[in-house]
């Protein structure tokens, strides 16, 4: 799976004028399923997201994860948004090809699995809707933006 992780002060996913998922401080993750990905891949991605140390400790060092924040009584939000365009291939010219993305039925099942598992393991999880035309509003905190590939 391919992901773009952004530490945010706030973020929300809006579809047809309706906010379908919103968080305060935490991380926005754009997620793309790739061919060959399975539930094990999605679970490894979730493990990495929950343990990713991109939040500051009292000394200002990036040393805390979403899981750490839970243990301290602070709850960081996790907003998951499906984003097949992360599989874009521009090697053939200027129009991107998305053949490297998993087929929609497989990708939807993996995204649903990821969201379900995230909600089982973290208290503050929101998501967009798979394959919906979504406007993502965010305030990138830092800015911290990290590309992540899990296979």
In short:
This protein has 151 residues and is of the alpha/beta class.
Overview of this protein structure:
The protein is of the alpha/beta class and 151 residues long. It has a single domain, classed as D-tyrosyl-trna(Tyr) Deacylase, Chain: A (3-Layer(bba) Sandwich). The chain is 25% helix and 37% strand. It has 3 helices and 8 strands. It has helices at residues 39-51, 66-71, 104-121, and strands at 2-15, 18-23, 26-32, 55-56, 62-64, 77-82, 125-127, 135-149. The strands form 2 sheets. Strands 1, 2, 3, 6, 7 and 8 form a 6-stranded mixed beta sheet that branches. A two-stranded antiparallel ribbon has the order 4-5. Helix 1 (39-51) crosses helix 3. The radius of gyration is 15 Å and the shape is globular. The mean pLDDT is 95.
CATH homologous superfamily - what is it?
A: D-tyrosyl-tRNA(Tyr) deacylase
Can you identify the CATH class? Alpha Beta
Total domains: 1
What Rg is obtained from the alpha carbons, in whole angstroms? 15 Å
Task: Say how many strands there are.
Answer: 8
Average pLDDT across residues? 95
What fraction of residues sit in β-strands?
Answer: 35-45%
- Helix-strand string: EEEHEEHEHEE
* Main sheet characteristics: 6 strands, mixed
As a percent range, the share of helical residues equals: 10-25%
What is the CATH-assigned architecture? 3-Layer(bba) Sandwich
Number of helices: 3
Q: The CATH topology, please?
A: D-tyrosyl-trna(Tyr) Deacylase, Chain: A
Instruction: Report how far apart the termini are.
Output: 6 Å
Task: Pick out the low-confidence regions.
Answer: none
Alpha-beta classification: alpha/beta
Shape: globular
